[in-house]
Design goal:
By secondary structure, the chain is mainly α. Helix content is 58%, strand content 0%. The protein contains 4 helices and no strands. The longest helix is centred in the first third of the chain and has 18 residues, at 2-19. The relative contact order is 0.12.
Length: 91
């Protein structure tokens, strides 16, 4: 399992290097890396790791914006009021 985390981490680093520019404000002590949208990148990374570790499949969630695995994972994680009512235990 650790090997899958390591491979996914290497893919994440490579993806950020290839797709995002280096920060122009690198003289500041607070910024010496890349300008990225962490919410989106970490969501894709997490879906990729879960797919590879739990299911043993290559999801391509990081590279493909229209990844089926990513679409269904986001749909499964979406919570709305109607869903809460449906799954809430009746007393």
């Amino acid at each position: 399992m650790f090997q899958q985390f390591d491979i996914s981490g290497q893919k994440l680093f490579k993806y950020v290097e290839e797709h995002f520019p280096k920060s122009r404000n690198s003289s500041s002590s607070h910024s010496n890396g890349y300008d990225v949208n962490l919410d989106e990148i970490l969501r894709r990374y997490t879906v990729g790791v879960c797919g590879s570790v739990a299911y043993g499949v290559e999801t391509n969630a990081l590279e493909e914006k229209d990844s089926d695995f990513l679409k269904y994972a986001m749909k499964a994680g979406k919570t709305d009021f109607a869903r809460i009512v449906r799954v809430a235990p009746m007393q």
